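Two proteins, back to back. First:
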Amino acid sequence: MHCFVLELLASARQDSVFVAAPGALRLAAALCKAEQWPMGAWPEQLQAIPDYDRLSPACSPACTLLSDALAAAAELLRFAPTDRLPPLLAASDPGLPVAAALRLSQYPWLASELATEAL
């Protein structure tokens, strides 16, 4: 099933019309939730998210496919490896930095360090 997700993401990146694959990201999130996603498949998945974020400012509000992909990406970030998340903290889409920060806040060492810096 994860090979299907990766194929969908790759074909969406090559397509000039359908640049996003929100269904693939939602399927990946479901596989992660069921603990069926291989750790080695994260790079391809996380590579698509910044691409979607770069396209979103140039897209009109009517681009529902892209906005749906960004929402699916934010949902997927709940399961992402934390070492890949810091670049997404500066994303232009408001949902991505929030999702990345929530994922990072699950680690007590980081939450205590951020609280110390805030003081």
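And the second protein:
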Amino acid sequence: MKQLFLLGLLILAMCCPVFAQDLPSQAEITDLTRKADEKVILFETALRAAKPFIPDENFKKFSNAADTAHVIIRNLQQKIFSQMD
């Protein structure tokens, strides 16, 4: 939940020109979102491997969190690419 809040702040800051000078470049954000997506994929792989040891309720919760992370990352990437046009 903390990560979602921080990503939301980043998106908000990208929309406000006052904060624009303190933000990383579009290339840096692109690289960071790519790395974040790789981490989420690794988390999903580990989660599937650990499924026999995790209660179904927790497995579903963790899977939903990974899906949400992918959506946030995709939204950030689309926002960056739309600003490049």
